[in-house]
Amino acid sequence: MTTTKAQRVVFGETLVELIDQNPRVLVLDGDLANSTRADIVANARPERFFEMGIAEQNMAGVAAGLATLGFIPFISTFAAFSAKRDLDQIRVVIAQPGLHVIITGAYSGILTGKTGKTHQSVEDITIFRAMPNMTVIAPADDVEVRKAMYALVYDLDGPAYLRLTRDPYKTIFDDSYRFQIGKGVVLADGEDVALIGTGEQTVRCLEAADLLAAEGIHAYVLHLPTIKPLDEQAIIYAAQRTGRVVTAEDHTILGGLGGAVAETLGEHYPTPMKRVGWRDVYGESADNNALLEKYGLTPRHIAEAAKALMR
Amino acid sequence: MKPLTPQRLQELKEIAARVRARVLLAVHHAGAGHVGGPLSCADMLVALYFHILNIDPDRPNWEDRDRFILSKGHSTIALYTVLAERGYFPLEELFTFDAIDSRMQGHPDMTKTPGIDMSSGSLGQGLSPGLGMALGARLLGKSFRTYVILGDGESQEGQVWEAAFVAARYRLDNLTAILDYNGLQQYGWRNAPGEHMLTPIENPAQKWQAFGWHVIETDGHDMAAFIAAVEEAKSTHGKPTIIIAHTVKGRGVSFMEDQYEWHARVPTQEELSVALAELGQSDLLAVSQGGN
Predict the structure, then answer these.
(1) Active-site residue, selected from the candidate residues A13, A56, A200, A249
(2) Does residue A227 lie in a domain region?
(3) CA-based nearest distance A66→chain B, Å
(4) What is the span of the domain harbouring residue A240?
(5) B141-154 pLDDT, tens per residue?
């Protein structure tokens, strides 16, 4: 397997590429550049890096003002803060006016480097998918982060939320992968159960599919890197193909990917479902494996949910 | 900026009286809206749009125009009226204020109204986009300037001070904030009874100075003084300027001045007649029945 880069490293490197191609791209940082790795821009292209300090509300407004002049600002801070410290600002001066600002949520989910409840972000997908005009993206791996960033700059003219993770995990895509905003990606075919993932949990869906295969269960794996606009057709097809759906996200099951899939199937193709994700609780600080195990996010948990549907 | 001749000053004052009358007419017609705040900032809006700003009503999106943000978006009917008087859209459209499908929304919406450079309405948010515009102008090598009118009530929002800190750090001397310092907010005002009330910001000059801004204090109803303050802001280098404009809420109509109940009250037909008479604009009352 090739060496996997952390999503945050690819984020910083890709920003430099985009800045070199497009002078309108720039970065606003909320005093976390050496964590989010926006510091790669600060070091390589300092003239396109703007430190806004620990003041997220102002940062969102500054991005809006820059966007009215044709700049494409990336707001860079942790997901926990991106989604909440400046939520009304994002709504009033970015989302409703439809400005092309890319809000990045670094350190999303629970794997935030032993920082615990304040730094874990498990509501951000729900929050941003409820906001009109907003595009919501959660890439699975380092390759997809880069492709998604290009798409957000070149294929979109409006606000977007890009959800990123802290630690390297596994690479599932190669450079031939074509990312399209709003399109799901079928990663494995099978007729017994559909595993639908977003972000890094899609990788664990593939691992769960391997566990299920060992028991003779054939899983269909659908990756939804775009949670909004949602690829409803891909979800309905997965349900039609298998008759059982498990969703997996490093996020609350209330209103996130699981909620979005349930809304879609409830209206168009009612199907038995299990949602694997945060179950309406606050987190704690611990190492990644301990967190995944305690809060039920491992491939084994996904596979167990699938088997429960088959009983 | 053109020279401010006595004749020009008189013209501006006349426009401001007309704007005040049209604000009251529009709010009366809509049966809703704020009046105290719009009358408080009316003189400054007229001075900006008729004398100071480098703009072109025929090209509201002209990329080199000066930018203006009404952070205290609740006073938007005054801005709409000034924009209409300036020729951005027909005066009759003011009577669609707050109506369904109207471009005259209850708070400024940059996606709907020609001449609105930034949406606002949730208080305390306008200075930050202004900072972004000023920073962007510098990056683009453009000479346009950005002006933001802030309310004294909304200065209780922490974001205003986040923006104050960052704008000073970036030495944005192409950014001018204007504080509409009328001392009266929705549920708090100077000398209000009871210690539970919070009145608007006190000693704003000291506070803004401490944040690294150039501070000018002026009378926000004295157009010549206000225009001179803007001139001083334009010739100030290395730091942003705030003009602390001492104003009277409800200015121009005797029974509305400094009265908190006129923050957002709709005048009755009789009150409207008296107010327009005080403003010397009774002629507008007749045409209002038919539209303009």
Answers:
(1) A56
(2) yes
(3) 5
(4) 185-310
(5) 999 999 999 999 99
